[in-house]
Specification:
binds glutathione, mainly alpha, Glutaredoxin, four-stranded mixed beta sheet, Glutathione S-transferase Yfyf (Class Pi), Chain A, domain 2, 203 residues
Amino acid sequence: MLLYNTPLAPNPRRVRIFLAEKNVTIPMRDVNLMAHEHKNEAYSAVNALEEVPALVLDDGAVLTESVAICRYIESLYPEPPLFGRDGREQAFVEMWQRRVEFRLFAPVALAFRHSHPALARLESPQRPEFAELQRPRAQQMMRFLDQELASRRFIASDDFTIADITAIVAMDLTKFARVEIPPDLPHLSRWRAEVSARPSVVP
Ligand SMILES: N[C@@H](CCC(=O)N[C@@H](CS)C(=O)NCC(=O)O)C(=O)O
């Protein structure tokens, strides 16, 4: 297997955290997004959508969605389970993973892409007013998560899962997206401190 990775990009970071939680290493090749390496012919042949991460399997097939890559890794290395153990747990993990991806990760990523000067070449034209619209959406989800985290340790359950990985990567991106984290969210803050201390998450 070969994982195409970009060290500072949030989506590949999800896969790297997932691998670290499994204590698994696989060969990686870095793709420099700032130099537009993902748009060259060689990388387009790997992933026609010109995005990272991409995982090339031993038979040459290519997986290109972060969560799909993580699911495949889970199938190879089931312990510890990060997508839930049984059907019921898996359904809840999926629900939370999607909620966090669409309602937190996406608005934070869009605010980042449409406002950060370093992304001007990748996201052209940038629309600062669109970034501005995303910030309250992300904050609304943070408030919702704060209420939920009052009654359990992690996002989907008392176990750490893929939903926590997506959420912590989004929270860390808020700094670059200039999304302010509301100060009055004690449960989210407790969760973030605990998750940030995991060796897989420490940058
Ligand atoms: N849905 C994809 C999204 C991947 C994605 O957006 N990757 C970003 C880096 S975090 C990228 O490659 N961007 C390239 C570009 O915007 O041109 C996934 O989850 O893997």
